[in-house]
Structures are given as C-alpha cells and as structure tokens.
Amino acid sequence: MSVEAAIPEGYVKVFSKPKALSDAKYTYCPGCHHGIITRLVAEAIDELGILERTVGISPVGCAVFLDRFFNCDFVQAAHGRACAVATGIKRARPDLVVFTYQGDGDLAAIGAAETVHAANRGENITVIFVNNGVYGMTGGEMAPTTLPGQRTTTTPLGREPRLHGYPLKISEMLAQLEGPAYITRQAVFDYRHIVRAKQAILKAFRNQLEGKGFSLVEILSTCPTNWRMTPVEAGRWVAEHVVKVYPLGDLKDVG
Amino acid sequence: MSRVLMRGNEAIAEAAIRSGLKCYFCYPITPQGELVEYMARELPKRGGVFLQAESEVAAINMVYGAAAAGVRAMTSSSSPGISLKQEGISYIAMARLPCVIVNMMRGGPGLGNIAPAQGDYFQATKGGGHGDYHLIVLAPSTVPEAAELVRLAFELSDRYRVPAMILADGMIGQMMEPVELPEPVEPEDIPERPWAVTGAKGRPKNVITSFDLEPEGLKEMSLALQETYREIERNEVRWEEVETEDAELLIVAYGTMGRIAKTVVRLARQEGIKVGLLRPITLWPFPYEPVRELAERVRTVLTVELSAGQMWEDVRLAVEGRAETPFYGELGGVVPSPKRILEEVRKYVG
Ligand SMILES: Cc1ncc(C[n+]2csc(CCOP(=O)(O)OP(=O)(O)O)c2C)c(N)n1
Ligand code: SF4
Ligand SMILES: [Mg+2]
Fold this sequence. Notes:
The complex is a heterodimer of chains A (255) and B (350). Chain A has 255 residues and is of the alpha/beta class. Chain A has one domain (34-253): 3-Layer(aba) Sandwich (Rossmann fold), CATH 3.40.50. In chain A, 37% of the residues lie in helices and 17% in strands. Chain A has a 7-stranded mixed β-sheet, sandwiched between helices. Chain B is of the alpha/beta class. Chain B contains 13 helices and 15 strands. The longest helix of chain B has 21 residues, at 215-235. Chain A binds chain B through residues 51-55, 57, 64, 67, 70-78, 81, 84-93, 95-96, 113-114, 116-117, and chain B through 22-23, 25, 49, 51, 53-55, 57-59, 61-71, 73, 87-88, 91, 95, 197-202, 205-211. Residues 28-29, 32, 34, 62, 132, 136-137, 223-226 of chain A line the site of iron/sulfur cluster.
C-alpha cells in the first residue's frame, strides 16, 4: 500500500496514483506507452470499484511483470495463452472480473487461435491489446503487426510484405465475428486520445459487468527503445504513420 | 458404493465428476472419445463446466486458469494431444496448481495409430515438458482401478499441489468391466485453496506464476518443488505384487501389460515355473525399493512393455546388477498374447 505524504497547509492534492496500482516500480523503459496504458487500466478498475473482484492475466512480453504493478489477484500466462487462461478462470468463477493485457506478438501471432476462439465464443472477458508493432521484450523483432518497410532486428532491410506477410489487422478480423460485443482501436499519443482510450477501457470492463461478452481494446503503443526513437518521436510516429495502417475507432459495438 | 458395468473412459469421467470436478476442457482425439462425450452429457447437468477448446494447447491453458481460480479441473487426451499440452503442464507444475490430466496413450511416434501402446512413459514420468518437474503418474490396469485412481489423482494433486496424470491406453479406455464407483465427495471434503485467485478481498493479493527473473528466487521456487517431490517419493509409492514370495523370475509390467502379465503368472505356475509379478501403480514415483528388494531374491527381472524399453530403464536403475534384466516389448500397437510372453519367460528359467 502506498505511503501517503502529508499535504502541507494551503496545498490541494490534484494527482495521485490509482489505488489499483502498487508501489512497485514499472519495469517499462522510460517514455514507453505501456506505462500510460497500464495506468489507464488501473484507473478504470478504481472508477468501477472492482479491485477486490478482479483477476488480471499477464502475458509474456514487456508486461510480464504486470502482477507486481497491480493490487489485485493475478495469473501469469504462457506466451499467447492469456485468453485461454482467462476463459478457464471466468468459467470457473463467473463472478470475477477477468482481464488480459497482451502484446501484439502474444495476442496476434502465437496466441492468434486462443484470441479468435475466445472472441468467437463471446467469452465475457476484457482484453487489453497493446500493439507496438514489434516484439519489445525479446529485442525488437518483427511482429505480425509490423508496418510495411519497417526495419526490425529480423527485417533488417524493412518488412517486405511479399516475403514477411502484411500487417495483421486482427481487430478488423475479430470484428467480423458474431461473438464479440465490443472491438475498438485507440491510441495514447496525446491527451485527447488518452481520454478516449480510457473511456474505451471503462466500457470494455462495464460490458463484462453487464454480461455483454468479449470486449477488446486495441491500443496503438510505442517501443521507443527498439524503434530507436525518443519517446516524443515515437508518439509522433504513431500519430503520423501507424494510424494510417491501423485506423482508430470502434470496429464493433453491440451497444 | 454402486456397482455398474462401464467402459474405462466412462468410468474415469464418472469418477472424476464424483470427485468434485468443476471444470473439464478437452479437444477430441481417439481413443478417449467416450470420455469427452460422457463429460459433455453429464458434467453440465451436475453443475460443472464442459468446454470443447480450439486445441489441446488452449485446453490445458484453460485448466491452468480454472485450477488457478481454485476449482478441481481436468483435461484428457491421447499421445499427440498430450505432446501439445506440455508447455502448459510445465507452467502448471511450477505454478503449483493441482489438476488431473488423462493420457489414453496410442501408438507413436507421429500420428502413429490408435492401438494400445505405452510409448509415452518417458514423457509422463520424466517431466515431459521443459524444466525440472514431475507429475504424479498413476497407471490403472483395469476399469475399476481406473475409477479408483481418478479419485486418488485428485486427492494427491490437491495434497501436494502437483498435477497428476492417469496414464492408460485404448484397451483400458474401451473395455467394459463392473466398476465400484466412488461415493460423491462433499464440497467440504475438498481441501481449501487459500492461494487461489478469487478476488483480493480482505486478504493480500494472490499471484499464480511460474516466473522469477532472479536466479536466487527461481532457485528457491525450484527447491521447494523438489522438496515436495522427495516427500511424494517417501509417501506415495504404490504397487501390486502377485506370487512374488517364491518367484525365481519377476515380471515387471504396468497398465495393460500388467493385466496380461497376471495371466502369464498363472499359466507359468500351471507349468511349475515360479514366476511373480510386480505391477507399478505409481509410475512416478516409481517403486524402486520394492523392485530392488525382489531383485535380491530372484535370478531374473523381466520387463514387459508396449514400448521399445522405457520403464526398463527405471527397472535397471532399481535392480543395479542384482539380477539379470532382460526386456520384451512390442511396438506399433501390437499386443502380445500371454502365451507369447510365456515363451519369453521360458528363455530365462530352467
Ligand atoms: C513459447 C515462447 N516462445 C517465445 C518466447 C519469447 N518471447 C518472449 S516475449 C516475446 C514477444 C513479446 O512481444 P509482444 O507480445 O508484442 O509484447 P511486447 O514485449 O512488445 O509488449 C517472445 C517471442 C516465449 N517466452 N515463449
Ligand atoms: S522494450 Fe519497448 S515495449 Fe518494451 S518496455 Fe521498452 S520501450 Fe516499451
Ligand atoms: Mg509488441
């Protein structure tokens, strides 16, 4: 639990850490959007007052330490299997609020089958999908989401779609299914988008509370370290280039 | 106790339901189809969750989730499907989650065939997936014993927080025998799971993980696991002996082969050949000590398996030169007759 410093006379507290977050230091690189997204999830849990009945599922990827950051119960899943693990938990205890937090390699490559089928079953879970276009944790290799021409450690000459495949728009694919309740793509590169992303995350949790079924929030994220950019350049890159391949907005919403 | 005529696969399913099974996840494969179908029919009616997953990989990870949430969970499959589950089983083992996995072995490697085989012994008893771990492995040789061992599998798995496997084959799965079904367990008989993820209300958060980036931390987790394994080895070795008192030749065989070997003992005794049988019931922990003690008294320890000689390695480790240790095995789903094995026995006696 956090150690609250006394607020001096005449001062007003305007900013504090969400209750859902612990005091553990983030393991994310400085300036990485993972940090913003993790905080937004925590804020949503606070606002809905569900901390004591929430179970998070951490992926394998840069968010593998997620259980340390949160004050709720957590399960660490094998690479790509978070949606299957979430299914097991939710089916065993439907009263719990279950969310996964997964990278693009985790969710759209190795775990594509688990993602598609959980969505298709309309599992009543919330999926936070952090798309940074690379495998961050393992050193910036190509992900299924990597942009055409983008250089990564495994596409040193840039991604050539005819050789390496096209950017996989898994949210568009999932939106074609009858199972999901809500599929949306958001970003967090500026304040306006952060506010919208937060609303989407809230909605994805609310859907679960209302029993509406599978809700996924894709969030275009950055990897300044492996993109070899400053955090500011990385944010700008998302705003100028990534959104062209991955347009923002709701892809499916049953209301 | 109710006595009914049942197929092995169905008896396993019914025994699991009576053992308080809450969640069952599967992917169809022969020769355990009847188990899946029985669960689909019965489990939802009796308050449980049946879910056909998109793959064995998904099914075992659903088991991981349900077990983490603190309910009795199970999956079943056959050899190729069990291979696919290995990463998930390794996670479950290190995360200290109880669950039951049924492997109705078939002929392999590869797609092999659906005939009885015992080629998954190494995979079942030596870990199977990555890392230093074991499953508790129980090998029934009859349908009633299968039902009994399912109950035991849930109990041991809960007691030690180690996943348990029922290792059998299509012969046991598909034959019909009269079974004494275990009494249904009461919810209060199932041990509490204070470590489960049930919502961190009025207690510190629970985390289910197999991960620690710090070598010292991971070492500690690993040592705790190893300590549990030593305890299981001390307390849970189970085996059956048949006519071993005056035996000159000891057969070691498990499961389907253990059953056939019983007939071999009878036939041999009719001919005046002093043959005994040691049938391991727990393949892990393996009955090293009982085999070693008998090896002191016999001239020959003959291992008989439906494999190229997998359990044979454990038998030789137990015997350590105290007796000769020949092997007879069949491959590809061929099941030898008692007479064929008797021929083998005759090579070493008289
Ligand atoms: C079965 C398996 N294969 C490969 C890995 C190695 N691995 C760890 S993280 C990772 C990729 C993570 O990328 P992503 O899901 O996009 O998450 P990010 O780190 O970018 O947030 C891989 C391939 C693993 N842990 N397990
Ligand atoms: S490697 Fe990339 S994605 Fe991972 S924490 Fe660092 S900047 Fe973020
Ligand atoms: Mg990524």
